[in-house]
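Predict the 3D structure for this chain.
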Amino acid sequence: EMSSQSGALTRTYYALESFCENMGEKIVPYLPDLVEKLVVMIAHSPTVHGKELAISALGAVSNAAEEAIVPFLGQVMEHLKVYLTAPDTEDGIRLKTQAIDTLSVFARKIGKETFSPMAAECVQLGMANLSSADDPDLRRCIYSLFAAISSTCPEALYLAWTLL
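Done. Predicted structure below.
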């Protein structure tokens, strides 16, 4: 029973992500409702899988909306930070991996002006997690975050590298 519910949830979120990708900038009028619903799911989904899917969908929404997501960034980051600093349990790593992946989307899409103030903290987050990351997916997402930061705010990455 639970696996069929999980499968249905996965397919629903997959459809939402595909829809968002195809909408592109036409998604902007729907952002307030989409972000609100996804943030509720991130905060209150009864399953780790549900939270993971909602975080991923938020990445897809942000990818489509690009800089139009900026007004919602504070609200989103408040919930994302919980998972960016999740403990290194199996569930924590799954949620952290997805949260870092979504953070990479923000780094690429919200514009340098908006991302710059967050860049150094994101580099520190990546470095701190890299030192303890045994999970290959988590490592991949951290490197993807560094790549996103290097394309948006290379100076933040350079600064961190010189401090090593």
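The mean pLDDT is 92.
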